[in-house]
Amino acid sequence: MNIKTSFISFAVVIALLAAGAPAHAFWIWTPESGKWVNPKNAVKQSPAEQLAYANEFFELRKYEDALREYKKLLKSYSKAREAALAQFGMGRVWEEMKKYWRAVEEYQKVVDRYPFSDLGPKVVERQYVIANLFLEGKAKDHEFAKSLLGTDYQIPDIFLKVIKNDPYGPYAPASQYKIGLFHLEKLEYQEARDAFEKTVNDYPDSKWAESARYQIAVADAKRSVGAQYDQKTTTIAVQGFEDYVKTNPDSQLSASAKAEINKLRLKEAENNFLVGEYYSKNKRFKSAKIYWQVVVDQYGDTPWGAKAQEKLKTIPSDVQ
Questions:
Q1: How many domains does the chain contain in total?
Q2: Which is it for strands 35-37 and 28-30: parallel, antiparallel or unpaired?
């Protein structure tokens, strides 16, 4: 056999071997397994090595590669101690990629799948940080949540995860309080009040309880705005602010509480004045007199006091 013939035979053998291998670059034959293996899909010989390899990609900000390697560890070493760390790494990757809702879900899997891991406090911290980003308007990922998770996720859902994951931890009182802030911003005053009240009831000794008491009065004040003839919510709000000032005279919020009391007194005066007008127009002068007299007696220092005084002069003289 000459050299040319030998070369052709060798080429044929290589071609035949290649034909038997999967049609993908980088596949190699491993005698140990008797299989063709793609090194790109191969896992390291130990979970520690695999974790270190994935972390290297994360540090280099090669996030897609990091995700791939973390997933390989979770698939091949699901029972290893490093599995929880890999799952936490998944959360970190998504957070760095600013896919915050996905990050929250990946972090949650650490708690759900590895309850005996010591990563719980770190998970809670990251979820709390992400919730704050949304609350402060520094993160935008709502469409991602709807399309990927099939649900209209809301900011309180993340804070609730924080509370559920560590109900007596350092982030729980703040999370409950900030659920109230979310509803207050959305003009959902009853929901806000309920959340602030829960802060006071569940975490009475926390620093958030004091602020929650103030915010309860704020929520009541907001609820009273549209209630022209119903003074109940306004009165409750005034009482709430007065109680706050009495209990926390040196608080920075006390000055704001006093200002709110003055505004609500004006509201109460207006409400009583308008009720008096309603009765007057319906010829129920005795009832009108009662309400206008209340304005004069209790809110005489407001502009409504002078107006009510003038209205009293219009009451027929025979009305007792």
A1: 1
A2: antiparallel
